[in-house]
Each structure stands twice: as structure tokens, then as C-alpha cells.
Specification:
Strand content of chain B: 15-25%
Helix content of chain A: 25-40%
Number of strands of chain A: 12
Shape of chain A: globular
Distance between the termini of chain B: 63 Å
Structural class of chain B: alpha/beta
Oligomer: heterodimer
Number of helices of chain A: 12
Largest sheet of chain A: 8 strands, mixed
Helix content of chain B: 25-40%
Shape of chain B: globular
Structural class of chain A: alpha/beta
């Protein structure tokens, strides 16, 4: 597991550390949690509340910003600074906050409709700028808050209230999208796997730049069972393709399946290990400069009903962040020319005096 | 040869050419020379939305008008005394604006059959008598320029490009302008390309010498400095003054300025200008779209910065949801709308005042916010400070309504004494503000200042003040989500009351009514101040009485505005829209104001306004004007104060 301290480029470098040990309770607000019973959001909230004390940051230096949707209520339930904003715009708002305040740990909570539909533009531009924040994308593949229309991640043919004959849209693969948008940290995890979720959160928070974490999250009301293949003991070993940096990509009951890369096309495929031998399996390199392999792995995600998908950190590379560079320009200007002098500014250029 | 020098009290010059001929630059330089000489002045750039429309066509014509005088002036002038036309299209597009007898200096170089036909001329106007009623100076400026700079070995195209400097040199001689500012400018601007620098300097001097030596110009003119208040001056455009106002506001408030913006005409220059002032801690973020621009500014405001976004009308439409969020969050935020012709893309490079109602009402729900409008290019500085004062003091988004005319127009600016700038206190919350039933201290984000109704601005990083805000309705005081009907009614009314209460901090309406006997009040807002002021002077010069007032605060209005309106028999409201302020005044005060409205994309001419004012003033003197009589009978106290 990569820790913040392992990276030469730590995400939380400028955020002050708490004086005393914290507990999960410190991060619970006084608000009653109002998601539907059985909603995957509860599990994510519990995981985040348990994880934040581990970060050990001053509570007042943590800010959660959300957009609109079921998941967007998240900030209300955390006793940090928070903003429940408007649909799709959380990454833009968090951008201003992160640029203005290097001493904050900035988190965005969003959903598949919020981030990929109405807010798609902000998501891709935040990723390419590599603003220092962690984006938790709760993907339940449905519009929950508006009561069950198909979303940009719903499988083609999805029958919903707005698509009685089945949707004709091709869905986004959020990981592929993020990699195409020049993201430096892209991971996928599952709401019900607390251990894995927490490990991904840890790495995401440690990353300096934008971390995108797609969380498969079950909506028990409008899309129940969408991720059942990953949860059912019978099927999950064959469904989850675990990505671990530096290890061969191997999965399935008895590790009988593996991932190979075609030397000519560069495409990835799942094959029985017995057919190709262990040595032929792809070794996952999350730190590869080139995103091609990470993108290829992301394509192993089933586009229709989700029977199989890679889970883990696809990509984790260093690149200067927009916010650091923007602040650096200010510092350079101040160093080079001295702090601004209003009198000098107004009197610059062609002036004349009337006496 | 010593030529005769004639004294003039004021001159209006219009320079016109292709979009690529450098007319804006030439106009700027002439303006700067005039400013340094000490004239009062006012400018009107006018350029097409196309960056480089096909050369020689009417829609590619770009012009710059400058009015300079030995006395205080308010507008760029109605009709040019002098037109410099660099090609047939420039002549054709501007000739109709010239009064008979005006001087026309024409570069004859492009008066070829092809270019004449492209400009819509069947025959050359230089030959067919079309210019008989003007004083025409046909000169092949291009050929003279190419000849003058041939020693520098430039291509013919590059050599000809210096013709604007030749024209500037000629004009500078003609009006006795100082040469030094322009030569210094050329040396600065082209420092890295010596042959271009030298060609431009040579063309400029050649133009000057041409005026001095040729017999084409028998006389030159002098416009003496205008008496101006003592102080240090510079010439400045509205967008630059607005940018400086934002920098100054950051200094006065002790807050870093964060500008989130997306390029849009005519607001982009503010983004450009602010990006130069990083040493003041100013951060400029060129966002992916208008929504992200304001979103980032709001996020920065949440973090305790001075959040600003700059745009024009179409951008305000895109930002409206975020403005509504800012109304709900009650965070300081400044939205600068540099209005342009609308609707939709409209007339991007032309001016208009048609976003007032959008600023007032262009959001879902009851979402009141303060609106401030500058009246002149230099006033953009003060208006920006005032808008920030309101935003920070009252924790509210504020819309600053400038327009294309103010943005690009310029005038001399008497630099302010920094000690006179308003102090702005962010007054961040630092400790809990509420005692819970169990005696513990906690923080209520919507517990208001009883006087201003402003809520505390508690920024992340402040221990003990962790709280959540958002677009959902808040419980008054505590700030948690509330769907309670009574609370919502209370919060809607409270947000309105907070904005209404700003009136207590903005002073009363300033009315210019010299002897207090005027029966007609002319009331304007924004950039119409100059044309209205000039028109009022013209009407008063004929012996008529008229009062003038100009609104800086469009929301809330000054507390005494209704009483002021009722004091006059008639109120004339000139606006570059179809009556938006008129609508607000009628709705608020039930006063039957008279509108004077035009949406031509150009500022009003003072002459047309003077006519409208005079007509209204005289209609009251007319015994047949039943309405006036009725008004006098109905409210005798309204006739005279």
C-alpha cells in the first residue's frame, strides 16, 4: 500500500495535522442520515468516517463539496466544513477552494449523473488540470433522486421510467473517461468492501493532484443488484479483476483466470492461466507514464450487465498540479517584483500632473 | 515655412480603416498624446465582431473616435469634425455621420476599381462630386509611407503597415500634439524588432513632416489644455479602471482576489489585466466555461478569498444558477457583467444596457441581490470598490453592470488619494456565536448581524466553526436543512430585507437642479451619464430648467428615490434598452416616468437627448398639455418644491 509518506509529492503536505487522536465520532455531524434503508451510501459514509481519523488532519481543515443527487447529501453527515452545491458543479467549486487554500484537504462527492452528465465538462477539466482534490464518484448506474431514470453509466437497453422501450444510449466507462482526460490517479472500488474502499481512499488522499475514485454503489430502490456479481460469494471471484501495482493480473476461482496483453494490438484479454502460463500474464504498473495499459485494462469492464470489472488503482502518476503552479506564479511575482504597491500600480504608465 | 495656427475649443476626430489597419492603436496613441497635453477627452472605439473581416469591405471597417477639448467634456461627441478614412469602405461607412464642412483625410491608395466596388461605390467619390460639401484632403498615405521606410528593407506589405503611424504623425502635427509619448511607445512596443521599430518611428515623423511642409495643409490647430482640478492624471479605459478597482478592493479588504472567468467580449480585457497583477496575490483562473468561472470564484469565496467573475450578458445567463446558490449561501461574490448588445450573441462588440432586468430577476425563486452600475470609464474603479464593499459587508453576491461603451471608452482619470478609499472589513467569524441549551458553545452559520442581517463568514481552517451550507433552504439561525413552510417564508423575506437594508449604507439621491426650480428630472443609470450630462448642459444653455440625477445603485434604490421622483412633474429616463429601469421605477413608485429608448449598439448622442429633454420641458409650458395641468391640480406641491 502506498502511503502519503512514500510519495515525493504528498497530497496533504500543506494540511495541518491534528493535535490529538481522533475517532469516527469526531466526524459525525448532528444531522440524521436520510438515505433509503440498504443504500450503499451508508457503507461509504461509514468507511469515510472511519478513515478520516486515520488521516489525522485538523478537522477544520477538511472540506467536502458535493453537487446534487443522493450521494450529494454526504457533506451534511460529516462534521467538517462542507458545501452541498448545485448539479454537476462541485469540481468547479472545489477548484476555486483548492486553489485559494493549499492548507485544506478538499473532497468532492458526486454521482454518475452529477459528474458524468450535467457536470461532465467540469470533471474532465478538473482531471486534466490535476487540481489537488479527491473525487468520490458514487456510481449506481441510475438516477436515484429523480426516481429512476437511466444515467450515463446505465447499460444500453436499460428499461426505466424515461426509457420504457429501453435506453439507446451508449454508457460511459468512468475509468476510461478519466484516463482519457489526463487523470493522474484513477481507481475503482466497491461500496460493500470496506477494506478495499479504505485502502483506495488512503492512496487517493495521499496523491497530490486529482484523484478519481469510482465507487460501485448499490441503489436498492431503483437499480438493486446492479453490482451483485461483485458481492455474491458464488460469483465475485470471477467478477473482480484485482489490480495491484507490480503484480500479475490474475483472478477467478482458484486464480484460474488471468489477463494478457496482445503484443500487436495492445488490447487486453482474459484467458485461462492454464492455457498461457503465469509468465505470460500482464504485470500491472499503475505508475507507468503511458496511460495506454491502464486504459486497456479499463476496457475489461463489461459494458452491459456488470459481470466482470477490474477493481483497484488503474493509474497513479505524478504531475504538477494546477493549484501548486498557480500559487507558485503568485509567489514568483511577489519574489521577483516585490509585493504589490497600489500607489505604484495606479501611477504606472503615462501620467501627467495638473498644478 | 511657418504656418498659421488656429485656436479651437474642441475637436472630434474619427479614424476609420480595415480591422487590420491598426485604427484602435492609432486612436489610443492620439488619445494619449492629447491626455499628456492636458485636454479633457472622451473616446469611442467601434469595431466589428469579426477579427479580420475581408479587407476593404464595409463590415470590416473599424473606427475610433476621440473628442478632445480645452474644457470639461462628457462624451466622445455626436459628429466628427474630422474623418481619416484609410480606404473606400472606411469612407463609405462613416461619411453619413459627418456634418457638412467637415474635414476628410483620405488615403487614396486603395481607390481602385476593385476596392471601390467592394466598398459599394460605382464611381470614385473622389471624382464624382460626392465629397463637394467637405474639405477633402486626398493623399496616398500608403505610397508615402512605403517611400519613407524603404531604407529598412521591409517587404512591401510590412512597409505599408506603418501607414497608420504616418496618419498619426500627420494628425499629431495638425493638432499640435506632443510627439514624445508616441515615439516612446513605439520604442517600447517594438524594442525586440529594430527594423519594425525604426520603420514606425520614421513613418510617424514622415507624417508629421508631411503636414508641416506640404501645401495641402495651410493651417494647423491648437486645442489648449482644459482647466482641471489639481492632481495627477492618467488616461484609462473602463475595463482597466474596473480591474484596478478589483485590485484595490483586495488591498482594502486584506483579501486575495480570485478571478474565475471565461473569455467573452467585451469583458476579456479584465481577465487579461488582472492576470498581470499576481504580485498583489491576485489569482486568475481561466475556466472551462462560464459556469466553472463563477463556481471556482464561489469556492474561493467559501475559502475566504475575494471571489470575482467577469462576463457579459450571455455568460450571466449561464451563471444564473450559481448566482442563485450564492444568494442561498450568503457568501460575498462579485459578478461583473460588461453588457453588450443582445439577445443571444447579439452585437458582441457593441454597447447596450439591456441586462438590468436579467441582473434583477434572472434567477429561479426569490433571489434578490444588489446591483451597482458605474457611470463613466473612470467611475468603474470606484464602482468596483463599492460593489465589493457591499458584497463583503452583507455577505451577498453583487452584480456590477458595466457595458461595452465604458469598457473600451477612455477618459482622463484624476488618481485617487489612497487614504480616501473605503475600508472594507471581512470580519471573519473566529469563535462560536451561540450557546446551546446545555450551556455549550456552538456555531450557527445563519445567525445574523441584527443591523445588516449578514450571516457570519466562517472559513475552513477555523477550529470549532465546522459547518455545512448548501442550496437547500436553511433553518434561520442554525442553518440546518429545513423544509418548514414558516421558516422558508421567513428566510425568503429575510434575504430580501437584507438586500433592501443596504439602502441605509448608500446615501441619498444626488440631484443636480441648480436653482431648484426645474419641473423635469432626467434620471439615468450606467454609461448614459455622459450623454445625459452633455444634453442637460445644452438644454440649460437655451435658458430652460432641467434637473439631472444618475443612479449608481439599481438595487436597492436610494431610500429617497420615490420622493425625488414625485418632486418633479415629469421624469425622463433615457436607457439603451426598451425601458427596463422605467419598468422598475413604475412598479416600485407608481410614478409614470417617460422613457427615451434606443438600442442601436451605440451610446446616445447628446443632441438627440437634448431634443427629447427640451420637448418634454416645453410640453409642460404648453397650456394645451392636459396631462401637465391635471398633474398640477392633483398635486400642487409637486409643481414646485
Amino acid at each position: 500500500m502506498t502511503q502519503q509518506t512514500d510519495l515525493p509529492f504528498p497530497g496533504l503536505r500543506d494540511v495541518p495535522v491534528a493535535d490529538t487522536a481522533q475517532t469516527r465520532k469526531d466526524f459525525a455531524s448532528d444531522q440524521e442520515v436520510r438515505w433509503c434503508p440498504g443504500c450503499g451510501d451508508y457503507a461509504v459514509l461509514a468507511a469515510v468516517q472511519s478513515f478520516l481519523p486515520e488521516l489525522g488532519l485538523k478537522r477544520e481543515n477538511i472540506a467536502f463539496v458535493s453537487g446534487i443527487g443522493c450521494a450529494a447529501r454526504f457533506p451534511y453527515y460529516l462534521d467538517t466544513f462542507g458545501m452541498h452545491s448545485i448539479h454537476g458543479r462541485a469540481p468547479a467549486i472545489a477548484t476555486g477552494l483548492a486553489v485559494a487554500r493549499p492548507d485544506l484537504s478538499v473532497w468532492v462527492v458526486t454521482g454518475d449523473g452529477d459528474a458524468l452528465s450535467i457536470g461532465g465538462n467540469h470533471l474532465i477539466h478538473t482531471l486534466r488540470r490535476n487540481i489537488n482534490m479527491t473525487i468520490l464518484l458514487f456510481n449506481n448506474r441510475i438516477y436515484g433522486l429523480t426516481k429512476g431514470q437511466y444515467s450515463p453509466t446505465s447499460e444500453t437497453g436499460k428499461v426505466t421510467k424515461s426509457t420504457p422501450m429501453g435506453s439507446v444510449d451508449t454508457p460511459f466507462n468512468p475509468v476510461s473517461l478519466a484516463l482519457g482526460a489526463e487523470a493522474t490517479f484513477v481507481a475503482r472500488t466497491i461500496d460493500s468492501d470496506r477494506k478495499h474502499l479504505t485502502s483506495v481512499l488512503r492512496a487517493a488522499a495521499a496523491h497530490r493532484g486529482t484523484s478519481l475514485v469510482e465507487i460501485y454503489q448499490n441503489c436498492p430502490i431503483f437499480n438493486d443488484g446492479a453490482f451483485e456479481a461483485f458481492k455474491d460469494h458464488e460469483t465475485r471471484d470471477d467478477a473482480i479483476v484485482p489490480l495491484v501495482h507490480g503484480e500479475r493480473v490474475r483472478f477467478g476461482v482458484g486464480h484460474r483466470l488471468g489477463v494478457v496483453r496482445d503484443a500487436v494490438t495492445g488490447a487486453f484479454d482474459v484467458v485461462p492461466v492454464a492455457e498461457v502460463g503465469v509468465e505470460a500474464l500482464h504485470v500491472h504498473d499503475a505508475h507507468a507514464e503511458e496511460p495506454a495499459a491502464a486504459f486497456g485494462l479499463s476496457r475489461l469492464t463489461m459494458p452491459g450487465h456488470l459481470d466482470r470489472a477490474p477493481i483497484g488503482i488503474f493509474r497513479q502518476v505524478e504531475r504538477p498540479t494546477y493549484d501548486d503552479l498557480a500559487r507558485q506564479q503568485v509567489a514568483t511575482a511577489v519574489q521577483g517584483q516585490g509585493a504589490g504597491d497600489l500607489h505604484a500600480l495606479l501611477h504606472a504608465g503615462d501620467i501627467w500632473s495638473v498644478t | 515655412m511657418t504656418k498659421q495656427v488656429l485656436q479651437l475649443d474642441r475637436v472630434i476626430i474619427r479614424l476609420a480603416g480595415d480591422s487590420g489597419d491598426g485604427m484602435q492603436l492609432t486612436g489610443d496613441r492620439f488619445t494619449q498624446e492629447s491626455a499628456v497635453l492636458g485636454n479633457d477627452l472622451s473616446t469611442l472605439p467601434n469595431f466589428p465582431a469579426e477579427i479580420r473581416a475581408p479587407a476593404g469591405t464595409l463590415h470590416g471597417v473599424s473606427s475610433f473616435q476621440v473628442h478632445f477639448a480645452d474644457h470639461d467634456i462628457l462624451t466622445p461627441g455626436d459628429a466628427p469634425d474630422v474623418l481619416v478614412a484609410m480606404n473606400p469602405a472606411a469612407l463609405h461607412a462613416n461619411l453619413d455621420d459627418l456634418p457638412k464642412g467637415a474635414t476628410v483625410i483620405v488615403d487614396t491608395h486603395d481607390f481602385t476599381a476593385r476596392n471601390l466596388s467592394r466598398a459599394g461605390y460605382a464611381e470614385s467619390p473622389l471624382d464624382d462630386g460626392a465629397l463637394d460639401s467637405y474639405a477633402v484632403h486626398p493623399i496616398d498615405l500608403t505610397a508615402l509611407t512605403v517611400q519613407a521606410v524603404k531604407e529598412f528593407g521591409l517587404s512591401r506589405k510590412d512597409a505599408a503597415r506603418a501607414k497608420n503611424m504616418f496618419a498619426l504623425g500627420l494628425l499629431s502635427w495638425l493638432y499640435g500634439r506632443p510627439q514624445e509619448p508616441t515615439t516612446a511607445f513605439i520604442e517600447r512596443r517594438f524594442a525586440g524588432v529594430p527594423e519594425i521599430r525604426d520603420a514606425n518611428l520614421t513613418a510617424f515623423r514622415a507624417g508629421w513632416n508631411f503636414g508641416e511642409t506640404t501645401e495641402t495643409f495651410a493651417v494647423s490647430y491648437e486645442v489648449k489644455p482644459a482647466p482641471m482640478a489639481t492632481g495627477t492624471y492618467r488616461n484609462i479605459t473602463g475595463n482597466t479602471a474596473l480591474s484596478y478597482g478589483l485590485v484595490a478592493a483586495g488591498v482594502q479588504a486584506g483579501l486575495p482576489v480570485f478571478l474565475g472567468s471565461y473569455p467573452i467580449t467585451p469583458a476579456s480585457d479584465i481577465l487579461h489585466e488582472l492576470s498581470k497583477h499576481k504580485r498583489f496575490g491576485v489569482v486568475t483562473f481561466q475556466a472551462e466555461d462560464e459556469i466553472a468561472g463563477i463556481g471556482a470564484a464561489l469556492g474561493a469565496a467559501f475559502g475566504g478569498a475575494l471571489g470575482v467573475t467577469t462576463t457579459s450578458g450571455p455568460g450571466v445567463a449561464l451563471k444564473s444558477e450559481t448566482i442563485g446558490l450564492a444568494v442561498m449561501l450568503e457568501l460575498p461574490l462579485l459578478i461583473c457583467d460588461i453588457q453588450r448588445g443582445g439577445p443571444s450573441t447579439g452585437l458582441p462588440t457593441r454597447t447596450e444596457q439591456a441586462d438590468l432586468l436579467q441582473a434583477m430577476f434572472g434567477r429561479n425563486g426569490e433571489a434578490p441581490l444588489p446591483i451597482v452600475a458605474p457611470r463613466s470609464p473612470t467611475d468603474c474603479f470606484d464602482a468596483a470598490l463599492e460593489a465589493v464593499r457591499i458584497a463583503v459587508t452583507y455577505r451577498t453576491p453583487v452584480i456590477l453592470l458595466s457595458d461595452g461603451y465604458l469598457a473600451n471608452g477612455s477618459e482622463p482619470w484624476r488618481l485617487p488619494d489612497l487614504a480616501s478609499l473605503p475600508s472594507i472589513s471581512p470580519d471573519f467569524a473566529t469563535s462560536p456565536n451561540h450557546r446551546a441549551d446545555d450551556g455549550t458553545q456552538d456555531f450557527w452559520p445563519y445567525l445574523r448581524d441584527p443591523k445588516t442581517l449578514a450571516r457570519p463568514w466562517a472559513v475552513p481552517g477555523t477550529p470549532g466553526l465546522e459547518h455545512r451550507i448548501g442550496g437547500l433552504e436553511k433553518a434561520e439561525g442554525h442553518g440546518s436543512i429545513s423544509y418548514d413552510p414558516t421558516n422558508h417564508d421567513l428566510m425568503v423575506r429575510t434575504r430580501q430585507a437584507k438586500v433592501d437594508g443596504i439602502a441605509a449604507s448608500i446615501g441619498t439621491t444626488e440631484v443636480d437642479d441648480p436653482d431648484g426650480l426645474a419641473r423635469v428630472l432626467v434620471l439615468g443609470w450606467g454609461s448614459t451619464y455622459g450623454p445625459i450630462g452633455a444634453a442637460v448642459r445644452q438644454v440649460r444653455a437655451t435658458g430652460e430648467r432641467v434637473a439631472q440625477a444618475h443612479l449608481r445603485h439599481l438595487n436597492p434604490f436610494p431610500a429617497d428615490l420615490g420622493a425625488v421622483l414625485r418632486r418633479y412633474d415629469r421624469v425622463l429616463v433615457p436607457e439603451m434598452n426598451l425601458g427596463q429601469l422605467s419598468m422598475l421605477l413604475r412598479a416600485r413608485y407608481l410614478v409614470d416616468v417617460v422613457g427615451y429608448n434606443a438600442v442601436r449598439g451605440l451610446p446616445f448622442q447628446s443632441g438627440e437627448l437634448a431634443d427629447a429633454i427640451a420637448d418634454l420641458v416645453r410640453s409642460l409650458d404648453d397650456p394645451l398639455d392636459a396631462r401637465s395641468r391635471q398633474h398640477q391640480e392633483a398635486s400642487p406641491q409637486g409643481v414646485r418644491r
